[in-house]
Design a protein that fits this description.
- The protein folds into two domains: 178 residues, Ribonuclease Z/Hydroxyacylglutathione hydrolase-like (Metallo-beta-lactamase, Chain A); 68 residues, Arc Repressor Mutant, subunit A.
- It has seven helices and 13 strands.
- The strands form three sheets. The chain has a six-stranded mixed sheet, with helices on one face. A five-stranded mixed sheet has the order 7-8-9-10-11, with no helix packed on it. The protein has a two-stranded antiparallel sheet with strand order 12-13.
- A hairpin with a 5-residue loop joins strand 7 and strand 8.
- The protein starts with 10 loop residues before the first strand and ends with a strand.
């Protein structure tokens, strides 16, 4: 049984092409409701998104997290619509630096945004420290915590593997009707997807730990041992992922990790 208790409202996904290494090559902007409506994660202005915004009474704008591919059009749409701009309480500085706009209001977990049908907020950090999800009747806008295919980057210095695993388990427990991710199509089986992403992340952790126990003594050695895929063009991201896993293992006492020197050893 789903834990979401909001009324069904129109929810529209508008994929926007973005520069950079993101899944599918685009970021999803979402319009929740119609009058009033909430605009979530506008990465850039496009003709399609302009038309969607023009066709709705956008009174609120919010983001799941302040990564560049999710915030590029917050300022222009705020100016065009005179909407109330929201951000996570305690992250106002990060939000303003990323968007170029100071928030009008803040939310925390448990806040309900005043949008037709209701929109709830839950904290799901891990991919980013300020990451939240928005619960609606049709499903949960989960940003970059889940994708229908592939995996999610949890990379140092911002990525927190321990928090990310908790975020997946929270989404699994809440069991929304669907997950609406930051990249790619809607996820029709949220629990199966959360389980798949958990298995992937825990398998990567196992490989990292095995590499250290087998004698890998620095980050690059762990990287080479833990990945058996071609990392051409992705080595920097994979390396940052290894560092995030080593941070987690060090906190849990499984390895000794000197992040400054990038050396590691078993405990």
């Amino acid at each position: 049984m789903t834990s979401v208790r909001y009324r069904d409202v129109p929810l529209r996904r508008i994929p926007i092409p973005v520069d950079g290494r993101v899944p599918t090559g685009s970021t999803n902007a979402y319009l929740v409701g119609e009058d009033p409506a909430l605009l979530v994660d506008p990465p850039a202005r496009t003709t399609e998104l302009d038309a969607a915004v023009d066709g709705a009474n956008v009174e609120h704008i919010a983001i799941t997290h302040a990564h560049p591919d999710h915030v590029g059009a917050v300022a222009p749409y705020a100016a065009a619509t005179d909407a109330t701009v929201w951000c996570r309480y305690g992250r106002e500085g990060r939000f303003a630096e990323a968007t170029g706009v100071a928030p009008d209001r803040t939310f925390a977990e448990g806040t309900e945004l005043p949008v037709a049908g209701g929109v709830g907020v839950i904290d799901i950090p891990g991919h980013a420290p300020d990451h939240v999800a928005f619960e609606t009747g049709p499903g949960t806008l989960c940003g970059d915590v889940a994708v229908a295919e592939g995996s999610v980057a949890v990379a140092a210095p911002e990525g927190d593997v321990r928090a990310y695993l908790v975020a997946l388990r929270r989404l699994y427990a809440r069991n929304p009707p669907r997950l609406y991710p930051g990249h790619g199509p809607a996820i029709e089986d949220p629990r199966a997807t959360c389980e798949r992403l958990l298995r992937h992340r825990l398998d990567r952790e196992r490989r990292v730990l095995e590499a250290v126990r087998s004698g890998a003594a620095d980050v690059d050695a762990v990287l080479d041992a833990a990945y058996d895929a071609d990392l051409a063009g992705l080595r920097d991201l994979a390396r940052a992922t290894v560092v995030a896993h080593l941070d987690k293992l060090a906190v849990e006492g499984a390895v000794a990790f000197d992040r400054d020197a990038e050396t590691v050893g078993p405990r």
